[in-house]
Amino acid sequence: MIADVIVSNLPAFLVAVPLLAAFLCPLVGRISPNIRAAWVFAAMALTAAIAYCLAYLVYTGGTVIYVFGATAADLSIPLDSGGIPIRIMFTVDPMSALMEIIAVTVGLGVIIYSLSSDERRSGLENYYTIFLLLISAVLGMVSTGDIFNFFVFLEISSLATAGLVAYRVEKGLAVEAGLKYLMVSTIAGIFFLFAIGILYGQYNALNMAIIAERIQWTPLDKIALVLIVASLAAKCGSVPMHFWTPDAYMMAPAAVTAMLVVASQASLYGLFRFVFTVYGVSLNYVTMGWVVIILGILSMVVGVTMAIPQKDIKRLMAYHAVSQTGYMLLGVGVGLAVLGDQFLLNSYGYTAMEGGIFHIMNHALYKGLLFLTAGAIIYRIGTGDLNRMGGLGHKMKFTMVFFIIGALAIAGIPPFNGFASKFLIYESVYQFNPILAVIAMVVSILTLASFVKVFHAVFMGPPREEHAQVREVPLPMLGAMAFLAILVIVSGLFPGIFVTNLIEPAVHALTDQAGYMTIVLGGG
Amino acid sequence: MSKIVRFCADMLYPAIVIFGLYVIMHGHITPGGGFQGGAVVATAAALIIVAYSYEEIQGMLSKFLLQIQESAGLVMFAGVALIAIGLGTTFFYNYLANSGLLFGMSVPFGPNPGELNTGGFLPLMNIAVGIEVWGGLAIVILYLLSGIPKEGT
Amino acid sequence: MLWNLPYIVVVLLAIIGLATILLKRNLIKIFLGVSILTSAVNLFIIVLGYRENSIAPIYTYAPSLNMALPTPQALCLTSIVIGVATSALMLSFAVIIHRYYGTVNVDEIRELKE
């Protein structure tokens, strides 16, 4: 009985648990720091458990919908509503479930890491409040089926991210980075709200499914699409709106940076959700696909060329994050460009999208791992300047191993997971347009070159005198890195299991606009 | 500030607080609600901070108390919504409406001055939001004005 | 023509806000521009819900006329609340930046260039 109630209310708990834990965090933190750490970890573990249960439900039983404020969770169309969904609704399909798995997995690792690395910092009670708020905002963004609700969670995540980036003032530098991020995301949010207004004014609805059913592809819809794509591309850090990325990623604490990767991917998810589910085949998919592909190619090339001359380890990794976002946009863009053509979609479109979506998962894992290793290095030697590092391989052996795993994965070397997803992208994009595949491979080689340079600068060479006191980082930090590293290796060694069980249902859920509408509108 | 300003601020403070509480309490039948009322109450805090100075105000407004208020409001908001799950319905289901219990009267038909005892759990939500916004905005104002140097320095 | 007046005001406000953000160099003025842009979008949403000769959406004993849509008003309120939080955060950033850099001119807040 109680189990039934919990299972049927999982989507609500998914957002409510981290939210409640966040609000209680300042009060619990007054008792003692250890109890606060236990509280934060317990909240995160509970959220992760809820997300895994929900994902299991979705992958075995199909899309789960949850209607807030109704008498029953799946009552999407109340009897007196005139046949349209009027309440706020969570629609968790396999794509959302995949994003939830990614968010809570990285979030769990990051929380373990952060509880150890930030232990001696001040102001922690509010820090973890904002952290849990960010996690619940990300989970809300990927679950919701209502465009205004998506905007609200988007704004919560912007505010929480800006607060976290600026949290360690660092002589004003972190605040400058946070301010840049806040300006970009606020203006993006305002334009997103304009787009919502345009869609609402025309179709008199805020539910994604009902807008998808009524959408006409009028000139106003085109304006709304441009606003949505521009604002969400700015939020996920794609070129040409990428300038906040290096600053914010560099100045934020390492744990926050790893979480920022996930938060930007939630915006990326929003972009895909709007293009595929709300607009679907009604839009001019060839043009739109090419727009996404060009955004992706620009991000890849600009990101990696800007990364090579960087002197700061986290800034360098931030440019690589821009570059890797390009792969996801490229893979999904190719799928979008052939969306209306079932034959091409079957022959390579689905594969390209699987590559792109698998890359989202892999990127969150190995990029999170890399940022955590960078944070571990900064934690011990106190600077991120590559010129002041060297010979750390003697002292920090485990960190070095984790860095190697992450670096090989991001460069796409088998048997790590970066190779698995990049290979899917290469082989499918080659059939679409060989030049794009060649660019993708060149970018991959440049990534490898860049990370070989970083590896040499940080870990190789004789030990330096000023690093004589440097030791390996504490055990919880190593544990968090090992957790992500194991996932990187496992998903690299057995990519087939992940692609068949997790990625394929997600891709088919994303492209199946009619199925999405049937589940929301057909039930009731 | 001068004595006149301080005296007026002292006089206005309870009036503003009571007006804000009125807006919170009548949120479900008149324009306004939790956020608006909470913002009105927070302006009372802003008024006395402006009339006095940040140093003098610290004894009057406790940051810790305001923080507890903020958390309590949010927890009450989520808690009231969570009770609905315990009753076998979904998160945010309005279980008090038309139930005959607290705020559970059905809305009277026809033109009427507004019945306070209606609205289900909406008044509870308004109170929760009001408490939270009161605490939250007062803290924001307090922190923002803490950077201002004292008069004459 | 008169019917479209609110939309013209929306566009004007949006242009004023964007111009302020892009042309002014003072952080506080840029924040004012963001606030004007937010007001523009709030007005846009409110105007969407208006019907000619409509009455307030209160259902008991209402005369049979068009009712103004309540949903855009709720959306607008939410957006105002978010705007308050955003401007509070932006202003506190400005306070901290002024404390460390001694200026609010965006041309001089450039410590993060590599």
Short key terms for the protein model shown above:
A: about 525 residues; two-stranded antiparallel sheet; 2 strands; about 75% helix; about 0% strand; C: about 110 residues; mainly alpha; Helix Hairpins
Please render the helix and strand layout as text.
The complex is a heterotrimer of chains A (524), B (153) and C (114).
Chain A: H1 2-8, H2 10-31, H3 33-61, E1 64-67, E2 89-92, H4 94-117, H5 124-143, H6 147-165, H7 173-203, H8 208-214, H9 219-235, H10 244-251, H11 254-279, H12 285-307, H13 313-337, H14 342-381, H15 397-410, H16 417-432, H17 434-459, H18 475-493, H19 495-511, H20 513-522
Antiparallel strand pairs in A: 1-2
Chain B: H1 3-25, H2 34-51, H3 54-57, H4 63-86, H5 122-145
Helix pairs in contact in B: 1-2, 2-5, 4-5
Chain C: H1 5-23, H2 27-48, H3 70-101
Helix pairs in contact in C: 1-2, 2-3
Characterise the protein shown here:
The complex is a heterotrimer of chains A (524), B (153) and C (114). Chain A has 524 residues and is mostly helical. Chain A has a domain at 294-493. Chain A is built from 20 helices and two strands. A two-stranded antiparallel sheet of chain A has the order 1-2. The mean pLDDT of chain A is 89. Chain B is mostly helical. Chain B contains five helices and no strands. The model of chain B has no long low-confidence stretch (mean pLDDT 84). Chain C is elongated. The longest helix of chain C has 32 residues, at 70-101. In chain C, helix 1 (5-23) runs antiparallel to helix 2. With 114 residues, chain C is mainly alpha-helical. Chain C has one domain: Helix Hairpins (Orthogonal Bundle). Chains in contact: A-B, A-C, B-C. The A-B interface holds A 5, 9, 12, 16, 19-20, 23-24, 26-27, 66-73 and B 67-68, 71, 74-75, 78, 81-82, 84-86, 88-94.
